[in-house]
Fold this protein.
Amino acid sequence: MSPFQSNIPSSEITPKEVFLSRRDVLKAAGFAGLGALLAACAPQAVSSSGAQAAPPDVPNSLEDISNYNNYYEFTVDKARVAPLAKDFTSRPWTVEVGGLVNNPKTYDVDELIKKFQPEERIYRLRCVEAWSMVIPWMGFPLAKLLAEVEPASDAKYVAFETIYDPDQMPGQKSPLFPWPYREGLRMDEAMNDLAILATGLYGDLLPNQNGAPIRLVVPWKYGFKSIKGIVRIELTNEEPATLWSSASPNEYGFYANVNPNVSHPRWSQASERRIGELTRRPTLMFNGYAEQVAHLYEGMDLAKNY
Ligand code: MTE
C-alpha cells in the first residue's frame, strides 16, 4: 500500500467546494476574512481544551495552499508571495544531477515529468513556525531519479539548490540570507519512498509560489527542508551546508524532523495551527509518518540532532 493511501484515506478527502463553504461559515461567524485569520504566524498558547484529539486530515483548499506561502526569494510576507511570483518564468528549466554519481545528467524539467509520471501524494506539511496544511501534491519518488544517475558507493548525502535569479526574485537582493537557498538530506532519507520531487498540486502543474517547476517534499520534516525551484542536485560525502543552518545554526539544524518534544528555542513545537481551523492540533512525531521513517533515526539523539 502506498504511504499516501495508508495515511489519508480517500473517504477523508473533501472536495474544494466544501472548503469554500466552510470559509463562508467562518466569515458569517464574524471573521473579517481568511487574511485576518491567517495573519499571525507566531505560535499561540495551547488552550486546555484544544490540541487533545487528532481530528481527521482533509486537504486544504487550493486558495489556502497558493496564497499563504514561504518563499523568501520573493518576500518574507506570506500573503505577497503569490502576486510577486505571478510572472516568474519557469521554462525553459533544467535540473543538473551530479557529484558522486556514475551517470551524471542534466534534465529538462518537462522531460523529467514525462519520464517519471507524477502520481498524487496527499501529505501533511508542518512548518517550523507551527502552522500546517494538507496538500495534494503531484510528484514522483526522489529515489527514482537517484537510481537513474547511479550513486557512487561513497555518496552519503544529497544536496539541493534553488535557482539564483535576483532579477526575477527580488528577495535574493537581500543580503540577510546566504543565497541561493540550499537544503540537504542523508542518502537513506532521500531514498525513502515518502520523499518526492513535486511538480504539481491539485492535479495541475505547481503554482509559481509553491516552487514551480519542481521542488522537494519531505513530509516528516519541517517545511523548510522542502526546497523550491530546484536547479541542482549533488551527491556528496559530507553533510551539505543549508541556508537555514548557516543563517541561524542554533535554531535550524540539518535534520529538522518534526518533533513535538523538542522545542524551537523561541517556541514550543507541541502543537500546531492547521490553516483553516480554529483550535490547535497536537503535533505528531515525524509529522505522523513515524511508521515509515522512525527506523532511519534509531540510536540517534533527536534533541541533539535537531
Ligand atoms: N524553498 C525556497 N527556495 N525558499 C523558501 O523560502 N521556504 C520553505 C520551503 N521551501 C522556502 C522553500 C518553508 S519555510 C516552507 S514552510 C515551505 O517551503 C512552504 O511551502 P509552501 O509555500 O508551498 O506551503
Notes: Residues 1-51 have pLDDT under 50 and may be disordered. The pocket of MTE is lined by residues 69-73, 125, 127, 162, 181, 210-211, 223-224, 226-229 (CB under 6 Å). The CA atoms of residues 3 and 194 lie 7 Å apart.
